[in-house]
Amino acid sequence: MVKTNQKKFNKISKEKLDPASLQATSQNPPHYSKTVYQNNLNIIPSTPSKSFCSKCSVSRCVCIQLLIFLGLLVLAAIIIPILVIILDTQASPCARTYSQSFTTGITQAAQCTAWQQFTTGLTCISYSKMRIYGSNDATGITVSDPNVVTALAVALRYNTTLALTHNGISWRVWQCSSGYEITSSGSACSCTVGYTIRPCPWVNGWWGGVQTTSCSAASQTLSLYFE
């Protein structure tokens, strides 16, 4: 009985250790392992390709840039009008105004002193606008030619005589005794009706006038503006 069992054991061992069977097994692996591997590949989700990802990234960047650009446009639309309003409300650094009240038949020293301070303060290199007006004519006459305006301002500042015609108006800057006048009448140191400011006259009360005679005119306010 023991010998029979021993023979069976030896036979089984030979079968398990037979080199031919081992080689056949290694060359021909079980089919089920390959099937399982293929099935595993089939269930693995596919990942997006690099080109698809790059396309998405470019589209996203373009959208962000467009949003930024639109935001800047909206911001500019808000800021620009505000800046324009601020600049319009700010006075020009060269802007100067002379405005004094005069009483008929009287020459006040304060008006003459204010005139001298005004003319010596016309120190800008150039001016673009001049307006002469008063209580008799709040609109007055406006000159917007920079060459003409600058020439009139320079003549007043340096107390030099000047005669020029612009838009049919004959302007004069002239010395009348102790001070200089500016007039649109075309006649220097005269009583001609026009727009004349002469705060330091040689005759008491002949300080000028707006749309009136410039000698012994009715009480009024005379104003001159440069910018």
List strands and helices in order, with pairings.
Elements lengths: L1 H16 L1 H9 L3 H13 L6 H40 L6 E7 L6 H12 L9 E5 L2 E7 L2 H13 L3 E5 L2 E8 L2 E5 L10 E4 L10 E5 L7 E7 L1
Antiparallel strand pairs: 1-9, 2-3, 2-9, 4-5, 5-6, 6-7, 7-8
Q: What is the H/E order?
A: HHHHEHEEHEEEEEE
Counting DSSP H or I runs of 4 or more residues, the number of helices is 6
Principal-axis shape equals elongated
- Beta-strand content bin: 15-25%
The whole-number mean of residue pLDDT values reads 81
* Strand order across the largest sheet: 4-5-6-7-8
The biggest sheet amounts to:
5 strands, antiparallel
What structural class do the secondary elements suggest? alpha+beta
Low-pLDDT residue intervals, each spanning 5 or more residues: 12-17, 32-41
Q: State the end-to-end CA separation.
A: 136 Å
Q: What's the gyration radius in Å?
A: 51 Å
Helix content: 40-55%
The total strand number stands at: 9
Question: How does this structure look, described?
Answer:
- It is a single chain.
- The chain is α+β, with helices and mostly antiparallel strands.
- It has helices spanning 2-17, 19-27, 31-43, 50-89, 109-120, 146-158; strands at residues 96-102, 130-134, 137-143, 162-166, 169-176, 179-183, 194-197, 208-212, 220-226.
Would you summarize the structure shown here?
The longest helix has 40 residues, at 50-89.
